[in-house]
Amino acid sequence: xxxxxxxxxxSVEEATAAHAGxxxxxxxxxxxxLVDLMKLGVERPEVLxxxxxxxxxxxxxxxxxxxxxGATVRNSDLAAHPxxxxxxxxxxxxxxxxxxxxxxxxxxxxxxxxQRTRCAYFQDVSKPCNKRVPGSGCAALxxxxxxxxxxxxxxxxxATHPSDxxxxxxxxxxVVELAGPGGGRAVPVTDFLRLPEDVPERxxxxxxxxxxxxxxxxxxxxxxxxxxxKARERASYAFALASVAAVLRLEDGVVSHLxxxxxxxxxxxxxxxxxxxxxxxxxxxxxxxxxxLDAELAEAVPLRDNAYKVxxxxxxxAQVLGSLTATA
Amino acid sequence: MASQAxxxxxxxxxxxxxxxxxxxxxxxxxxxxxxxxxxxxxxTATVPKGRVASLDxxxxxxxxxxxxxxxxxxxxxxxxxxxxxxxxxxxxxVPHHGWPVALAVAETLEAARAAxxxxxxxxxxxxxxxVLTEDPPGAYTPDEVNGGHPTERRRGDPEGRxxxxxxxxxxxxxxxxxxxxxxxxxxxxxxxxxxxxxxxxTSQGADPVRAVLAQVFELPEERVTVVCEHxxxxxxSKGTPRPHVVLAAMASxxxxxxxxxxxxxxxxxxxxxxxxxxxHRLRLGAEPDGTLTSxxxxxxxxxxxxxxxxxxxxxxxxxxxxxxxxxxxxxxxxLDVPTPSWMRAPGEAPGMYALESxxxxxxxxxxxxxxxxxxxNEPDEExxxxxxxxxxxxxxxxxxxxxxxxxxxxxxxxxxxxxGAWLTGTGVAAATxxxxxxxSRATVTAHPDGLHVVRINATDIGTGARTVLAQIAAEALxxxxxxxxxxxxxxxxxxxxxxxxxxxxxxxxxxxxEACRSLARRLHxxxxxxxxxGLTASADTRGTADAESPYARxxxxxxxxxxxxxxxxxxxxxxxxxxxxxxGRILNPRTAGSxxxxxxVMGLGMALTEGGRVDPASGAFLGSDLAGYHVPAHADVPEVxxxxxxEEDAHLNPMGSKGIGEIGIVGTAAAIGNAVHHATGIRFRxxxxxxxxxxxxxxxLV
Lengths: 328, 702
Known about the structure:
The complex is a heterodimer. Chain A is built from 12 helices and 12 strands. By secondary structure, chain A is α+β, with helices and mostly antiparallel strands. Chain B is 25% helix and 25% strand. Chain B has 16 helices and 28 strands. In chain B, β18 (418-419) and β19 form a beta hairpin. Chain B is globular, with a radius of gyration of 26 Å. Chain A: Keywords: Oxidoreductase.
């Protein structure tokens, strides 16, 4: 039996010190993913640093109008927060489309970003998986890959990032605040989560000992509208086959701001910079939107079972942008 | 005595153990903890075919608290069994992914799990084939199919009449592997004392478990006690003893302590059976007026290498429609897969999905109302056997359902109802399920205090058996149901068949009814107070319940569905489901309604969300837990209505009832699929109708 020691941190400093000081350590938030993976033998930590008592459970408005989401704010509380619902509907909608009511009641903001892929091969310790055991191979590459990536994957890993929240955070240019033994830093969420390349075991750029303390949402451009949409295999408690988060601002019928991100397509939320650039300064006619999305998705490389994702994502995004254009 | 018994048959009384269940008081198989109980954890094969070359248990045996690691070398020898899936830890062969290769036993669950994880297993693998293809090499015609049905039935000249038919449908349908996934996973607590074996098991029948345990451990049945007091669903996967109960008993014998073993959700799908995938070719030929001239239903399915189970999916075609020219046939390929078994309405559920989809396609080809088409082909007698139906009210179900559903207002054109991105449609399908019944014993005792105690080893798998048996007894005795106590769920009681094949209530109720009638007669004949021990009567329905009937006996039903299809995402959402059943006399409307609705929800999952995936490389059922295998969530389940028509049938059993546990699933998937066609104008023929295929096919619809 592998013993696990448990530390209940009373401060951020204590948490990062406890995490950095020992061997294989994991922060414990809601535990909704970590504990599952421990039972499956996928995660085998030696130390659990419980951070749920840290004073990181508030949603606070910053002087510059930004919204700072504490890392331990529960998903349910986050989605229901009046400021979030009012100013960032895309984020609230994304949270509510994830998991189930019971899971959202315990899962945390920081934990949501750090959840692991639901690739079935990753979750089965008897199967090869470079993310779990670097160098062991990728069973999904030629296996059952219906749910896997079409963008940004590598021969080493074709997993997707499962979070809905992260997709919305990518679209609103959220920034992840980290505390660590060497001090703090802030990283845009789109850089925080990474593509697999040849180190698929690293989901994020977080360093040993570092702790997510907050996610900061910058103010959205005045007059912008936002929305999250997700396609899934059942109406609740299913991961995205594809999803879209979008923030749009029109001035005189012309796109003056667009944040567009896809979920379910890649190892991290896929910020559609190419489509954004194509539409910025243009009228978002259906034809222009289609051209922009085609340009974005041209680099998709579907696997055996998941070619459907490309057209699904394109149509979802076209629908979301169309509906936002109608209301902007 | 009251002439109209209170709360007797036909009353919607609540299930008796409901309070105990919702308050946690009802004990399930692995909630019994005998003194000294220890825990077992299974090690299962991670390769699809071959043998265990070596097992290294050294590290596992060092885990603190470990008592033993059972392997084929150390495990108790079992006597031969007819069921190869139960011959566990007897040799080093690996017939499929997930097969048990070792069992760790320890003082705690955690230690057992850790030890199991420390067992080193090396395999010698052989080439394997685990994926069912359209024309699998090695496919053969089995001698018979599940239920003892003939593998092939041919009447007239089906091919010739099909070729000559002015209107014809020739279509292929596919149903993927499906998992039973009852709420309560399979588990057992076993203990040996003085040469006696006592087992708490989760099974649909304690007597069959006892018989098998007695056989494999070479004991007289009297020395085996099996308790199945509460069972959290089975859907066929607990119909016969499964490996967990044999393993628990082996482990207990080995370590001389009571042992508890529970399978994980992922282990379930590879060890307790699944619905085998089926590939259907349906050919229907018809006259322009809708008269069927040919019905050909050919099914290809898989079984495992160690046990033949053939899903009898072509059998419903022998029951449903009139016509002199028919072929219904099965082929099966033995693959390197876990052994399939019963899952709610085996045969009928996948078979009627295909047949009723094809009938809908034919109605479209004929430009005819699908209800009218079915009505036109209503047979006077069972087409295959020529026997008269004991009762058949399919047309009445269709008409009653049509009225309640609002079918008359339906615009039969497909793909024309749009609201924004949504297309809506409605569909109908018929359902059928055979009437099965087995002999049973029962006793009933009248006590001086006015209580009547019914004893029968029936099993309540969540259906309300205790409750409905009390109602049957009350009616036969002429007393109120509250004056009847039912004792069920252990082999100490009179022998009874399992809860399966929608036959439990009919089989048990028949014996209970006979015993109670006998007691009532004796009570009537005597005077004076009852003796302190009460007065007991018993019944055994051997020779009556299993007598050959001159009638074809089936329940029928009609399913209606309304769906919305989101053309942006390809998501199909069911908006309404409505079922109307003709299933004899409904004994308890409340519990019967729950079973019908439960079947319909399971059919919704079959239609839209459920599909097992086989990993070609390892032969594993991948992502088979409840996060990866999508049974419907509450948000998927809309308004569901179950109704029934009053059906009197004197050729069934003394209660006049037909089984109701399975028919609810039978036509649901086809009704939903037909509604998706009506919504989109596109015919999908491969379940489940998930967004990937619906969206891809539906692009450009709006």
